Amino acid sequence: MTDQSPPPHSGGGYDARVPVLALRDISKSFGSIRALRSAQLDLYPGEVHALMGENGAGKSTLVKIIAGMHAPSGGQILVAGQETRLPSPRAATQAGIAVVHQELLLFPELTVAENVFSGHYPRRGGVIDWAGMRARARDLLADLDCHDLDVDRRVGTLSVAMRQRVEIARALNQNARVLILDEPTAALGESDAERLLEIVLRLRRRGVGIVYVSHRMNEIFRIADRMTVLRDGSWIGTREAASTTEADLVSMMVGRAVDQVFPKISVPIGGPVLQVAGLTGGPLVRDASFTLHRGEILGIAGLVGSGRTELAQTLFGITPAKSGTIRLNGQDLRIGSPRAARDAGIAYVPEDRGHQGLVKPMTIRENISMAVLDRISPAGFVRRAHEAQLARRGFDRLGVRAAGIEQPVGQLSGGNQQKVVIAKWLETGPSVLILDEPTRGIDVGAKSEIHRLMGEMVSRGLSIIMISSELPEVLAMSDRILVIAEGRITATLTRDQATAETVGLAMTARKRTTA
Amino acid sequence: MTSQILPARANPPAAAPLRRFFSEYGHECVVALAILVLLVGVGLYNPRFISARNLGSIFSGNAYVAIAAIGMTILIVMRQIDLSVGALIGVLATISGSIAVSGAPIWLAWLAPVLCGMAINAVSGLLVAYAGIPAIVVTLGMMAVLQGGLISVTGGAWISNLPADFLLAKMAVFGLPMPLVWAIVLTIAAGLWLRLTPYGRSFYLIGGNAEAARAVGLPVRRRIVMAFVIHGAFAGLATLMFATQLQVIQSTTPPNLELLVITASVIGGVSILGGTGTVFGSSLAAVLFAAIGSALIFVNVSAYWQRAFIGALILLTVGADMLRRRRAASAGGK
Fold first, then answer.
1. How far apart are CA B25 and CA B37, in angstroms?
2. Interface contact flag, A31 B327, Cβ < 8 Å
3. Hey, what CATH class is B53-312 in?
4. Where are the beta strands (DSSP E) in chain B?
5. d(CA B59, CA B51)
6. d(CA B98, CA A204)
């Protein structure tokens, strides 16, 4: 399975035969843990090279080695054919390597221009040349086709997508020949992600070598020339994108064939479970009406900021509704708090599991039991045996992979953490489960497991509302799809009606009419 | 589509109970070991150090630190802190002493500091939880108010002629000094309460991730206020063991007491980042301080070194905590 493909097409005027960056037999250990063994990577000028693998495969470690944040335990790094050591991020920058990390490293209190130049302000006569700096920042952003970005704005006031462009501009300002993008679209909505891909293609035309880390298959196949797959810290192979299929790639990543990326079970749809009418609350939930049936997966699609998450949070009582009615199993509900929602039988797995879902220093057991602690403590004392039994049940049912229920959840991979959050909410015995971005940032294997679990849950009579930014996921998993734009439901589509086009159109419907 | 895509890997068998105990109480064991080493080491050098009489006086003289550290531990687990506890104990001691010499029933002199401690800390707690002011700011302000108020009201006069039946710390239960008994009983009771009840667990959940705790319906703000109130009650109990040791009560606050209490919590394994730590650890750490202070005297080192020792100990434990966290984080996948 280990093969090396020839260099790709040559990029504008660069010597495409010499890799701008080459990693040979890179290994890295943390204490007794081997994070990488003998990893390989060749990056040519004007190439988009996807770096892929499940969570924990070693991608982040490799990126950090290239960025000069970790020193490799063994192996060689060659920059433009020259063996180079990268003992610090500064050394990497000087070698022409720029990294846009998943967590953007910007100074929120400074302006766009100051951020683009951070650390290397242009000077004139010993003082900072403000005019020159602003003009140059404007040029750089225009180069990225970001004319709409005001260089005097404070970065803290920008959206994530805009901040990311600032970070890319900063990388280019340092004359980067190698740009590493670590999951750049993970936090972006559809249209911002689209724009980012265009920027990437633009940079490729200029001969920049780009290492692109992502879980999103459709993106990879659109922009990557080659892909390198890591698994369990080992290099599995490097392939030409043109001669590789999605299935090949997935099986390289998980080490076995995955028959279907979105396993959808058809479950007979029953009567109405949740009936929502005229629900309004906050600025982004306006007059929402819909019905959820027993055994149904209702997908919610919409752009970031369309009010998808806000709708879920209103149903769950985090931001209680101002008006409208919620009927659950034929009973009118007033949901004023998450506790009321839980007691009524609504569970919510939040978008940001680290922030709202998990207590990372605590064990799997304590995390799974936290939503039902009062129910398993009849005499005012937590019944440990009952708690352990319940935690083990959730642990087994969801197939959490860990050393045991006493392992702190902070040590688990993203997919396993998500399973713990779902297990926690299943213990409350909900009739409606709201999943907000259930597979964001988790690897392919865990993702298809979560899809399988969703099928299992609805076949047991649960009803699911699933919010997702990934259109293919929504299309494949949902029985019906609600599309939201600017706080309103703009379309309700059945499985047969829903296509990328119809959903996409409804997502931007309101924008177009008001624009 | 029923085939399992990823067969669940067999999980390793559950760890043996003893190993689990060490992984859960590892830090407490280390502190206990340090105490043991100190006792044996200094005891070999000077056997009088480990005489029952000396040990009794060391531990009962410092029991109040352990008692105050119980409440502080709960606060720090909740990611809060109280810098005013030293000043508070000074004020509560004066309140208690004044009642005792006024001729009022002695039980009132004992009850008052506990209730006043709860009331004063309720104010801090409300400001933190509902006005959203960081605890470090609120309690810094409270410290100044209490210190300034105390000295203004008393004019620096000491309270003497305390009635003999007020001096709780000088009494004994089954031949054991009262402060020691209190420290042990309160530590065990609080430790079990924190561990076994949903209420106690909620402090750890909120300290570990307040957002997630709120999402499962825990009343985060109310719990923050309660943590302050409980801490106030322990400060009151600590006052009783502190103020009734001698025949007089100074109307100034014991200098740096709050730091000693916070240090006991931190060295006992309470992570300053919230969510972990036990009162068993903080009480053991208080014992360790007391032992260090006394041991220095027995090996003829100036007692001033005690502070330097304890300071070094803080840096050592917090450093070890950070290192352990970093290890755990890098072991966890990426």
1. 18
2. yes
3. mainly alpha
4. 172-173, 176-177
5. 12
6. 81
How many angstroms separate the CA atoms of A476 and B280, rounded?
A: 53
Confidence of residue A2 (pLDDT cuts 50, 70, 90): very low
Name which of A316, A401, A452 is nearest B5 (Cβ-Cβ): A452
Separation in Å, CA of B131 to nearest CA in chain A? 20
- For testing contact with chain A, the best of B5, B6, B27 (most A CBs within 10 A): B5
Q: In this complex, do A359 and B215 lie within 8 Å of one another by their Cβ atoms?
A: no
B323-to-A95, B256, B271, B319, B330 alpha-carbon distances in Å: 31, 28, 12, 6, 11
Rg (CA), chain A: 25
Encoding tokens for residue B170?
């000088």
Q: Chain A residues with CB inside 8 Å of B211's CB?
A: 355-356
Query: Both ends of chain A: CA-CA distance in Å?
Result: 52
Burial A162-183 (b: 16+ CB within 10 A, else e): bbbbbbbbbbbbbebbbbbbbb
- CB of A366 closer than 8 Å to CB of B205: yes
CB-CB neighbours of A31 under 10 Å: 8
Taking only the tens place, the pLDDT of each residue in B165-217 is 888 888 888 888 899 999 999 999 999 999 889 999 999 999 988 888 888 88
User: Please, are residues B268 and B277 in contact by the beta-carbon 8 Å criterion?
Assistant: yes
Q: How far apart are CA A417 and CA A409, in angstroms?
A: 6
Q: pTM for this structure?
A: 0.73
Q: How far apart are CA A53 and CA A48, in angstroms?
A: 16
DSSP element (H, E) containing B317: helix B305-331
ipTM, interface predicted TM-score of the complex: 0.78
d(CA A252, CA A301): 30
Identify the CA nearest to A355 among candidates A437, A274, A287: A437
Mean pLDDT (whole number) for B294-313: 80
